[in-house]
Structures are given as C-alpha cells and as structure tokens.
Amino acid sequence: xxxxxxxxxxxxxxxxxxxxxxxxxxxxxxxxxxxxxxxxxxxxxxxxxxxxxxxxxxxxxxxxxxxxxxxxxxxxxxxxxxxxxxxxxxxxxxxxxxxxxxxxxxxxxxxxxxxxxxxxxxxxxxxxxxxxxxxxxxxxxxxxxxxxxxxxxxxxxxxxxxxxxxxxxxxxxxxxxxxxxxxxxxxxxxxxxxxxxxxxxxxxxxxxxxxxxxxxxxxxxxxxxxxxxxxxxxxxxxxxxxxxxxxxxxxxxxxxxxxxxxxxxxxxxxxxxxxxxxxxxxxxxxxxxxxxxxxxxxxxxxxxxxxxxxxxxxxxxxxxxxxxxxxxxxxxxxxxxxxxxxxxxxxxxxxxxxxxxxxxxxxxxxxxxxxxxxxxxxxxxxxxxxxxxxxxxxxxxxxxxxxxxxxxxxxxxxxxxxxxxxxxxxxxxxxxxxxxxxxxxxxxxxxxxxxxxxxxxxxxxxxxxxxxxxxxxxxxxxxxxxxxxxxxxxxxxxxxxxxxxxxxxx
Amino acid sequence: xxxxxxxxxxxxxxxxxxxxxxxxxxxxxxxxxxxxxxxxxxxxxxxxxxxxxxxxxxxxxxxxxxxxxxxxxxxxxxxxxxxxxxxxxxxxxxxxxxxxxxxxxxxxxxxxxxxxxxxxxxxxxxxxxxxxxxxxxxxxxxxxxxxxxxxxxxxxxxxxxxxxxxxxxxxxxxxxxxxxxxxxxxxxxxxxxxxxxxxxxxxxxxxxxxxxxxxxxxxxxxxxxxxxxxxxxxxxxxxxxxxxxxxxxxxxxxxxxxxxxxxxxxxxxxxxxxxxxxxxxxxxxxxxxxxxxxxxxxxxxxxxxxxxxxxxxxxxxxxxxxxxxxxxxxxxxxxxxxxxxxxxxxxxxxxxxxxxxxxxxxxxxxxxxxxxxxxxxxxxxxxxxxxxxxxxxxxxxxxxxxxxxxxxxxxxxxxxxxxxxxxxxxxxxxxxxxxxxxxxxxxxxxxxxxxxxxxxxxxxxxxxxxxxxxxxxxxxxxxxxxxxxxxxxxxxxxxxxxxxxxxxxx
Lengths: 506, 506
Prior knowledge:
Two copies of one chain form a homodimer. Chain A is mainly alpha-helical.
C-alpha cells in the first residue's frame, strides 16, 4: 500500500477512536447526571439509553473494522512509521481489543447481568450483615473471572492478569515485595503510635458546621490548588467522585457532614487531586484513548498527594488555619493550629477502610490484596472469606468486626467483579511519597511554598511531569521518569516515620 | 411472509425506533447540561459529541434498513394488521423519512453549516443593529428553504410545507382566516383599552425582590399545578425552557429578574405548562416517536393556558395573593389583590415580542406570519424585510422600532431557518381559549376550583384529554375530540373581550 493508503488508514483509525471517545463522554455525562440530581422517575428509561450507547461502544471496540485497522497498523512496516504517541494509541487499542475479543459475547452479556444482580444482592447482604445472601453471587463472579483469565492468558500468577487491568505491568511478585516491606515497617510504627502517651485531642473536630460555610471553604481551597472552575464544577453527592469528561470538563462532587469539619474538605481536596490530573492532560490527546490517567495507582497518587501530603501537612495548616478559623467564626478560637494539625492526622486502627487514616489505610488494602491473591490462586474458597477477613484484620490491625456488614461485606468492589483494584489505593500512597521526595529536591522550598499559600508551582510541576502525559506514558515510565527509579516503598515508610514520629513524639 | 415474519419485522422496527429515541434523549440531556452549567472549556469537545450522536441519529433515520422496514410496514396488507398506535408510528416515521430522504446529504450538511454560521452572524448583527450583516445569510437560508420545498413538494402555498413541520395540517388558507378574524377584533379592542381612563397601576411590580424568595414562590406554584418533582427539576438559565427527556424526566428552567416580581413566576408557570404535558404522556408511548407533544401549537396552548388563563386569572390571585404577600413579607402590604391582578394583566403595545402582554402578543405573531408568507410566495425580498417589518408594526401595534436590533433582528428563529414556527405561539392562545370553553362546561365550578387552590382536577382533565395522547393524535384530532370543533378563533376573542372589558371597564 502506498503512503497515501497508510495516511488514510491512520486517519480513519483516529476518527474511529474519536467517535468511540464521544460515546464514552456521553455515557460519562449521563452517569454524572444520574448521581447529581436526575429525577428518579426518569432513571429506568435513562438506563436504557446508557445500554444503547454502551452497547454501540462495545460493538465498535470489537468490530471487524477495528480488527482490520489494528491488524494493518500493527504490521511492523506500518507500526514503525507511527510516532511515539500513535504507537501508544495502537498498542493500547490492540490490548483492549484483544481483551474484549477473547470473551465470547454471550459470556460477557451473562457477566454484565450477573454483576448487576450481584450489586443489588450485595447491598441487601451488607444491610442485613448476611454473607450467605451474597456468597452465591460472589462464587459465580470469581468463577467467571477465572474463566476470563484462562481466555486472556496469564503469566506467573492468574491474579496478575487482573492487576494489569488497573495497574498495567503490576504483578503479585512486585506487590508481595512492596507490601511486605511496607507492612514490616507500618505494623511496629502503628504499635508505637498506639503506645504513645501523646495522643492528639480531636473533640473540636466534632461540632456542628454550617453546610454553606463548609462549601465556601472547600471551594476556596480548590481554587488555591489551581482547580480550574471554567473547566469543572463542584456538586454534592452521597459518595464523592471525580469524573473527567474531557480536559475542559472535569467535575467533582463532595459530601457535607454537618458534625465533621474535615470530611467534606479532605474529600474535596482528594477529588480535586484527581481532577487536577484530568484537567491538565495535554490537549493533543483529546479524542484518543490516551486522554485519561495512566493507571488507577498513579491517579490515586495524585488524590492522595493533595489530600495527605499537602492537605494534612503542617505548613498547609500554618497557612490556611487562620482562614478556617475565620470561615467558622468562633468555632476554633480556642484551638491552636498545632492541635488542629495533630487532630487531622490522628492514627487509629478501625474496621472501615474508607474511614481509615493515612497510615492504617494501607493495612486495610493488604487484607484485601491477600484475599484476592488467594482467591485467584484458588487456595481459598469464597465460603471461607469472612473467616479469612476477620483473621487478617485481627492480625494486621488488631480489630475484629462485630458482623460481616462491617467486615467482609463493607466494599462494593467485588460485587462488580473489580478484583485487582484495591492495591491501587496503597500504590497511590507509595507513588505519592516517592514523587514528593523528588519534588522536594527540585523545588527546594517546598514547605515554604505551601506555607506561603503558593500551591500553583507544585501543581505546575506535577502537570509538567505527570498530568500532561495522560496515558501516553505507562505507570512505570511515569514513576521512573519523575523519580529516577521504579516503585520503592521506602519513601512512604520514611514519610510515615518522620511525620508520625513528630506528631506522636516517638 | 408469515405472521411470524410480520411480528418479527414489527418488533425489529420498534427496537430500531427505541434506539433512535435513546440517541435523542442523550442529545437532549447534553443540551440541557450545556445550558444549565457545563464548564465552558469543555464545550468545544462536547459539541463534537453532539455531532457524533446527531450524525448517527440522522444516519439511522435515512438508512436503507429504515427504508426497507417502512416499505414493508406501509404495504396495505401489513399496515392494516397494525393497531391504531402502531399505524400512527409508521405514518409519522414515514413522513420523517421521506422528508429527510429527499434532501441530498451534501445539501443538508451545507445547510447545517450555514445556519450555524447564520446564528452567530445574527447575534453580532442584532448587537450592532446592523441588518446588512445578517442579510446575506438570511438570503441563503430562504433560498435553501425554497429549494427544500421544491424537493419536498407542496400543496397550495409553498409556506404550507413549512407550517406543516410545526403544526401538522396547518395551511395559509386556515391561518389567513383565523388570524384575520382575530386581528379584526383585537385591533379595535386594543384601541379601546388604550383609550380607557382605567389604566392599572403597576409601579409596585418593580421593586427589588430577593432571588431565593422568588425561587421559593415559583417552586410552590409549580407544586400547586401538579408538576411532579420526582419527574423533573427547576434550574436557572438566561433563556427559560422546558425539555422532556422522557416522561419521567421533564426539566424546566427559569430566570430571576431582581427588579420584577412576575418575570420568573410567569416564566415558571409557562414552562411548567409545557412540562405537565410531557410528564403526563402515556407510559405506553415511551421509546416511540409519539412520546412528545403533538405539535408546537398544542404544546404552546398548554404553557399559555397555565400562564395566562390560570396564572393571570382573578380567581388564581384571590387564592394565591396572600401567599405572595407572605412570601415577600411587607412588600405588598399596601397593594389590594385587585390592583395586583390588574397590574399583571396590563396591556401595552410594545416592540419586543417576548415582553408582550397576552393580547398584543398575537399581533407580534401576525407581523411575522405575514412576512414569512410573503417570503415564500416570493412577493418580498429579504432586502426589504426591515421596511416591511416597521410598516407592519406601525400598522398592527402602532409602534416603530428605533433600530433593527429591536425590530426585524429581535428573534433568533430565522437564523436557524425556523420559518413556520411563529404562528404556533398565536395558535397556542387560540387552542387554549377554545379548550377553556370546554373545561368550563365539563368542570362547571372551574373558577371555584382555582379560587380554592384546587388545580389538580384541571391538570387531570387536561392529562386525560390532551397530555396522555402525546403525538398519537394529530393536533386537529386533539382540538376536535376535546372541544367538538376545529380551531375557532372566536373563543379567544370572547375571552379577551370579557377579561379586558372587565379590567379596563370598557
């Protein structure tokens, strides 16, 4: 085929992907609307709309035409003519295509129905703390995933194939190493913290806080972070989330708890971190499958970097505590900034992951990781999960759930078949600490910037090193190019030792 | 083909239409979002999403498959086996198909581009009161429509083909008759009103009114009308509108003017009237092309019925004026209900259609109708529109615009090629008055219901007679089945004579 033929094929391929991206964006907006205020009587018809658009998207993703275009563009002669970004687009598309194509359509359909039913069963089961109600669904979901893994293929460990969906390149071998190293240090640190006589006072965090004031302060901090309100908006939902429809429209939501000054604020900063990532993806990537975060772990590193390493830092509160005091006129008059800072960093083993502090959060993840790993090496049965769960919570965190509702049933993930997702949260913490180490070198007055309310250079640094690349670099390429080395859990350990050693005077 | 073959084809056809309706609903939601608060930096990418979905919808509407299905189902043998609703679906779909199919795709594309450019040119032209900036676009749009009319065919008058798009079955002959009869009575009535010494006081309408209070009162009245907030929501936009995404999700918007107590309120009631129509369409019609109002005129009859014949009636204010006084605590203490009622019905010839009162509004429409009719009988040139406009305003309303911005350039419609749309507004007034005449017979205590704040029986009556049918009945079938006769302008004339004879003591 001539060069013209090549260019034509490539253009056609890009147009095709752009159409797929349009469908994705439409579905994304519908979901945002459903969660932020769509009238409930319209939901059943709207769900059919989602079904139609998602169905069309899936059809396009496995179509004969897609197959032909990919076959053409992956031929060595043609592939070598593509630029780096185009090669990434083709490689990513081929990976998605192969993954979708290997599952027989009927099996996939059945699985979609199964997980929809499972989520509803899980809700009831959690509500009634009755694992038996959920167990048969979970058994089928695990079995289906084992079957999918066989169809997809795997290397080393079956679970690797699932991990790769959320964190491309991540393996059990790597996670065993980094989680092992982390746990080895976190568990004794936690014991020392619990034994410390210097526990923070926290009673002042629990007063009644006006919702409008909470909103005003959340918006103020978002602005300080460099969140672009012309490319986004903040709404209210039961479960906070961020959604990047395109880099010019990245919306976040939060939840206001009237008896808690921190929940909405740190929730907003967390989602704001996700949003900064999506708002700053290079415009060149719009309309391609690379116009998104490179992995769940790197995405989570940004939400957690902003939430914990900036938002829960001492320089941050040195700068913004006065503003908070003014915002809640009178309610913090007798609370010194140091007390507030220590309170927002209280460490306390608990049963519920989403309420966990920055330190113990990782242990919650490790419990789930160990269980998922065993499910897919088939060394544990679904029936035995509650027992395994409770043992590991006792072992890692020293706490025992009173029932399965606050134990093994607490998270929605498994009902949707999202195995391999949990590790991203802890990976995010490790990536974030590792990146901070580099930022501190490259922006030597890092603490000074924060204390001066000068957060934009930090955002710009991250945009340059991480955000703008979207999925054009792999997670490994990102962490290596930013920090000069692969994922290394030591930086998170060091960060914890320094921060909590200071707070708890260890 | 066997009965099974017939049923299979019919099912396939219905599924196909349902998918088209899903695309429409997705596009509708995107437009709603764009107008209510989508971040501006995301709009250009979002517009491409709209392009993709609308393009797909158009492709489906003129596809070979659509052609085949319609050919099959319109065959006498098959058509006769359809039930009444199915026949309407096929007939409507065939009409749309033929209309779209007759325009060569390239011509249609060019026209879409032309009107997009024209709208933007119109905005500038209006802003600068410079007709010459808009004239070349309008010339092309009129020429394109004349060409389309030739392709579509016409009976009697070319303009009939355009009228039929908004008001199926409406003709120049009919409009000449009803508008003639109306104008003959309205013009002298207007003269008498202007000569009356009993002009209402209106100064108290112009105070400063708190936005939250306006919103609260608007929501209260919507609830009284029977607007279902589980199937809708009220938002704020520059230009108020109603959009029926599906009968379970019919959203309305309004605009709050801080110096005007009535603007947001009557705007909300107006859009609420449109919304009641869409919320009460029978669930059986969901997913079909009949799940919408039957015509622009009938739709407008409902917004105007609620806005003017209920909302601007004396019994309405006898019931709700106390609530309004409480809502704006103190601001209406010295204004008797009768003064408020008369003020909300002030008649005053003006230049701007959208600010016109109920009576003179129809004259604004007739100006536009006469001009459009002449454009498509080619008895006037686009270049001569400003002059014709100004003459007719002088003639019908006795006012003269100071410039083309408040004259011929005031409305957006022509820039989008929406010729034939304007008459709907006046038709709505006539339909509404005609229906009220019947309601008064069938619900003899009509005024008592309103004065008792008992609006739901009125809504239920309209739902039963009009709303539930959606587009399953034609506008003529609706007005005939509801009132026992075809469109008759006398009822609007009677209503005006009684109402304004009383208010202005004629």
